[in-house]
Specification:
The protein is 33% helix and 28% strand. With 156 residues, it is an alpha+beta fold. It has 2 domains: 30 residues; 110 residues, Nucleic acid-binding proteins (OB fold (Dihydrolipoamide Acetyltransferase, E2P)). It starts with a helix and ends in a 12-residue tail after the last helix. Keywords: Cell membrane, Cytochrome c-type biogenesis, Heme, Iron, Membrane, Metal-binding, Signal-anchor, Transmembrane, Transmembrane helix.
């Protein structure tokens, strides 16, 4: 093999290795930043994982918001109609945050409480993010099936 071909082969090999390393680094960065959306009932069933970072979506339950005077720590409950999950958030809540409104919080579980790192709320009390509405609707459809639906029907 002549020196020019050998140099081109090494250059091509170096480019392939560099592309593979770059692709791996991008995939790892994207995987680390992915946060899946779960409803409180899915979290309580254990679908979110014990130490995973995820988004919690639902409605802020009525009369659940508490904040100690002089404290930045907010306590509230997120409800999906089937289950309720307590949330703790330290920081400034969005101006549009209020009870009986759709909310998405990003964070992790600590014991039985969701510790939020970020809280998002929308401007209209009738608004609900499509992901949250779809998941809550699916959860309600599961519970709306009559208990006798699986039982054999007597056709006498």
């Amino acid at each position: 093999m002549n020196p020019t071909r050998k140099r081109r082969l090494w250059l091509l090999l170096a480019l392939v290795v560099a592309a593979a390393i770059a692709t791996t680094l991008v995939a790892l960065a994207l995987q680390r930043n992915v946060a899946y959306l779960y409803t409180p009932s899915e979290v309580l069933r254990g679908e979110a994982g014990a130490h995973a970072r995820f988004r919690l979506g639902g409605m802020v339950a009525a009369d659940s918001f508490r904040r100690a005077p002089g404290s930045m720590e907010a306590h509230f409950v997120v409800d999906d109609g089937d289950a309720r999950l307590p949330v703790v958030y330290t920081g400034i809540l969005p101006d549009l945050f209020r009870e009986k409104q759709a909310v998405i919080a990003t964070g992790r579980m600590r014991g039985d409480t969701f510790v939020a790192e970020q809280v998002l709320a929308k401007h209209d009390e009738t608004y609900m993010p499509k992901e949250v509405a779809d998941k809550m609707g699916a959860a309600h459809r599961k519970h709306d099936v009559p208990a006798s639906a699986d039982a054999p029907v007597d056709m006498r």
